[in-house]
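Take the subject:
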Amino acid sequence: MADHAKTAAGVLAGVGGENNVHSLVHCATRLRFVLKDEGKADATAIRAVPGVITTAQAGGQYQVVIGNDVPDVYAAIQSQTKLGGAGSDGADEGPKGNLFNRFIKMISAIFTPILWALAGTGLLKAFLAAAVTFGWIDATTTTYTILNALSDALINFLPMALAITAARYFKASEFTSFAIAGALVYPTITALNGQPDITFFGIPVTMVSYVSSVIPIIVIVWLQSYAERFLLKVLPGAVRRFLTPMIVVFVAVPLVFLAIGPLSSLIGGGLATAIGWVFQTVPWLGGAIMGGLWQVFVIFGLHWGLVPLFQLELQTTGQMLLLGPVFAAVLAQAAAVAGVLVRTRNRNLRSLAAPATLSGFLAGITEPAIYGINLPLKRPFAFGIVGGALGGAIIAMGGVFSTAFVVPSGLALTALLGNGNMLMLGIGLAVAILVPFLLVVLVGFTDPVDSTAPAATAATDTVVLNPVDGTVVALGEVPDAAFADGSLGQGVAIRPTSGAVYAPFDATVVAAFPTGHAIGLRGVDGVELLIHVGLDTVKLGGEHFSLKVSSGQEVKAGDLLLEFDGDAIERAGYDLITPVIVTNGDLYPDVADVASGPLSHGEPLFRAVSVDTLTSAR
């Protein structure tokens, strides 16, 4: 197995160390350094590093050709240095995407380190709830108290866990972030929730609960990262190390209490008033809002503004109509992740989806499902909103209510039994579960590539169809040594005469670069292919390219993969020659039946010859 950390360390030493690197990005096959002094780079030493194919210098970049493993070596360099990350001065690898996509990416990155703990304790919480429901454990015993604490602690003190992961993401001090989060959930502070006449140096404070909250701690750690960088620059060296955390904590915690808390309370209170009015005038619409958007409110911490409305409704009417549709919201997200469990071929995703499904259905603990799976995959989360809205509308139309405040879950459904139209409750719950489950299974989502899937142990020859209209050129004629000498793999090149690239066989897209200049495919027989449109075209940053697929997507032979403006690319000074190479040379070391001359897309280009074929021929 390749030692990517060793390769990364060797490359870094060969280019003159981290201090000699101005910026670092990577493309489909190579690391692209901009060095402060190229004279410090030792090409001979770099080429001797295990995992390095060759080096090249072009366009002001010092290029280290790695091949298929370049993302892993790049990640290893990131872990060893500050290069290539959010805090570096390197160029971006591609478009960051719209604000929503960046928000989802941030939330996913912050939650990923704690997902397994959330899933495990959530599952334990579900089992404990089942034990109480079926009378196996008495909820008044100290045994229950201990089990409840160890299964509920992580979700209760979630801001403290998120403080650490958010600090790592935003490159802030982890323990300063921890101190801020600890203040938010400190017992005496939690006890002030809802109390009147709270002030801070005479300034009125509206105290809300930060237990299990997500957004406040992420926002304040983000601000903390900027404050720390500023203070570390301006404070004298003798005092900056202890004054910085002191100032940050002193400012950050009151800022949450004075601004973030009241703002969330104001928005939540406005939502509560509006939703209450809707329930009175158009019940089905109120049910659709609660069922569809409850989990969205939870993400932003706005659901706390609705909790007092639940209590007020219970005090004045003895029942809670607003709570019924929330069951639909919770079970819909659990059903969506169940659909992912059935549909995905990714082992890691499946192993996380299983406990997330159980804890969601049984205990109503949806954090592992939402933050670990549904929200990052986008479609399952959207399908859950649809199912929750439909189910919530039906439940509200049935006048279903609860006479006790419970955490909505499968095991807590007894709180609704006998209260309102039970037929409408059953239909609403069935719709909330079946709609997102079927949508996820039938419509699908972009399944992440399973990096843990075992490599193929046997290979068969694969016919590669021509992906782009043009003239076939021998690989040795490509004016780039890494391609020309076959270091990256065997294949051919095409001089394109049109601006579209099509799938050369049935495959999974394993690498769809944001810049659109290259695509990596893995065929159903195991052959891995790189289609690289032009030379050094990664520098265009996606300009003149239009990517039509995404990583993890399954494609059929002839499907459109990307479009490009060949004339504009050539006018920008780039060679449009397009190498088409087999990158897993350990299984497919040669090509045969290579076509020549002009060729339309879809016609046979060459045959990837497997190692098994070569072995049997000897």
